Amino acid sequence: MDVATREVEQRVSHFRQILLWPLQLMPLPKDSPLQHHYQLLEQKTPDNPWRELADEFCGDPEQFHERHYSEFVTFLPYVQRFLYGEKGGEETDPRYGESPIRIFRRQDVAKVRMTFKESETPLSFDIVHLDLYFFYDIDVVILVVEIAADNLGLRQVQDTLYRFGRAYPPYWDEDGSGGHCLRCAEWMAADGAVLAVSDYEKRGKYLSFVSRFRAPCISSHWEFLLRPLVLHHSDEDGPVRYRQIEYHRMPLLAYLAMDDPRSLSRGDFARLVLVSGPGKSGSLPYSDQHLEGFEMRFCYDRYWHPQADQPGTRLLSCGHAFVMVGSAHDAYFTGLENGLLGQFRHQFFLLALIPHFHKAALLMLSDRLVTALNRLEIGNAEAVKQFKRAIREILEVFLRFTHRYWFYEISDQAQARALFSMTREHLGTERVYTELREEIQDMSQYLDSDSLRRQANTVVRLTVVTTAGLIATISTGFLGMNLIDAAQDPLPDRLLFFALVFLPSALLTGFAIVKSKRLSDFLEALSDERLSQRDKLATLVAVWRKKRPPGPG
Question: Are residues 71 and 32 in the same domain?
Answer without folding.
Answer: yes
